[in-house]
Write a structure and sequence with these properties.
The chain is mainly α. The chain has a single domain, classed as MFS general substrate transporter like domains (Growth Hormone, Chain: A). It contains 16 helices and 2 strands. Strand 1 and strand 2 form a beta hairpin. Helix 6 packs antiparallel against helix 15, helix 10 packs antiparallel against helix 16 and helix 14 runs antiparallel to helix 15. The two termini are about 25 Å apart.
Length: about 425
């Protein structure tokens, strides 16, 4: 027996997982990839354009970076809202509407007459896009055969990587040849096409049951996750790992331009390094279906720190090699942390994953701005030193609180 909730949400009594190789599984994989393409192409469109925004609007370079940070702040704010309502709203409808509203805001951004109007639009765009991040991992955990969940999450992250890479590369190239408004328009049109394809192809949920849980219960769930060392250490991991990663790609372009004298079209292609992130997400994702995520997280953190240290060497070849290692390892860290949150949260998946993404994007916003102050005040070596210290903090915390005795087994009682 099935009952229908809305026009696209089917709720079975027995879970109907999408099995690998089936048409539904393939459509989910393709469409979840498209969400990442649309989301991150729009979210990070201005990351390679900080210097152009600085020149176009006459603001400080550190202030110009707010065009990027405001979007991630918007994501964090939106995700706070979805902590309370993600388990109520239909997954497919929410993701489609979020992508559509964000695309409209990106289109309007083309006509910004002031820098602060652009920042406000980026903030709203981030809030709109948060609807995708709020439920994507929960959707995969609910709909995909548990034996393939690592692979499915890696496909979602691969879409995030491709979106971030394509948005950065093409916006940098197009802005170099024309200006930032033209590059924004191109990304907006492309995103609209992706939204239409997603709406036509994405399967509705079969295992999602809307839960109209009172706000006090939601707050108790938040408190539980935020006071459980296992989850809190994973939230810290996402926050710091993403903060350092976003900062590197925010400010490395200045190093490549001023220290190594590379032209804009070469610097834009640096973001092709994101393809390494796809490899990292897929490798760690598949490995996590067979090996301990905690063990793989430790390996990824070591690789992350090694990559950062390599970028301190004043050699272009070594810097690019360090960026390679750092990018591969970051997506391994992110893959393992997000997997552990989504699989260990049990009944509170949406709340737990929303909190993870909140910390993740807060890290991108706060650390992105803070690390910019470090970079412009004390230089690249100080930037690297602070980044490695932050990663060391993550290693210490996760080394302690991801041990077996802190695992949230049956003793974790989710308020209902």
């Amino acid at each position: 027996m099935r009952s229908e909730m809305g026009d696209d949400e089917l709720i079975p009594r027995v879970p109907e997982y999408a099995q690998k190789g089936t048409r539904r599984f393939v459509r989910i994989r393709i469409c979840i990839l498209l969400t990442g393409l649309s989301l991150f192409a729009q979210l990070y469109i201005y990351q390679p354009l900080i210097e152009e925004l600085h020149s176009s609007f006459g603001v400080l370079s550190s202030t110009a970076s707010l065009a990027v940070s405001s979007g991630t702040i918007g994501m964090a704010l939106g995700l706070f809202f979805y902590v309370f309502y993600a388990d109520v709203l239909p997954r497919r409808r929410l993701m489609t509407l979020s992508m559509l509203v964000a695309t409209v805001l990106t289109t309007v951004s083309v006509f910004s007459t002031s820098f602060w109007l652009l920042v406000a639009l980026c903030l709203l765009k981030g809030m709109a896009l948060s609807g995708v991040s709020a439920v994507a991992l929960a959707y995969l955990a609910e709909e995909i055969d548990p034996g393939c969940i690592g692979e499915a999450i890696s496909v979602y992250l691969a879409g995030n990587i491709l979106g971030g890479m394509s948005g950065r590369v093409f916006s940098g190239l197009i802005a170099g040849w024309f200006d930032w408004r033209v590059s924004t328009g191109v990304i907006a049109v492309t995103s609209m096409i992706l939204v239409a394809f997603f709406w036509a192809m994405f399967p509705g949920s079969r295992n999602f049951t809307p839960k109209n849980i009172p706000v006090p219960t939601r707050l108790r769930r938040m408190r539980l996750f935020l006071t459980t060392p296992f989850f809190l250490s994973l939230y810290l991991t996402g926050c710091i790992a993403m903060g350092v990663f976003a900062s590197v790609y925010n400010y490395l372009s200045f190093v490549l331009t001023h220290d190594f004298h590379l032209p804009h079209y070469i610097v834009a292609f640096i973001f092709l390094m994101y393809t390494v992130g796809i490899l990292g997400a897929v490798c760690f994702g598949r490995a996590s279906d067979h090996r301990s995520p905690q063990y793989l997280l430790r390996i990824a953190l070591v690789g992350y720190a090694v990559g950062m240290l390599l970028m301190a060497v004043p050699s272009l070849v070594v810097v690019i090699s360090g960026l390679f290692v750092m990018t591969f390892s970051f997506f391994g860290v992110h893959m393992m942390a997000s997997r552990m949150v989504s699989t260990q949260a049990k009944e509170g998946k949406s709340s737990a994953t929303c909190l993870y993404w909140m910390f993740y994007y807060f890290g991108a916003s706060a650390a992105g701005y803070f690390m910019g102050l470090v970079f412009f005040s004390w230089g690249w070596l100080a930037f690297i030193a602070v980044a490695v210290l932050l990663l060391g903090l993550v290693a210490v915390v996760t080394g302690r609180y991801l041990q077996a005795r802190y695992m949230p087994g049956d003793s974790l009682r989710i308020p209902s």
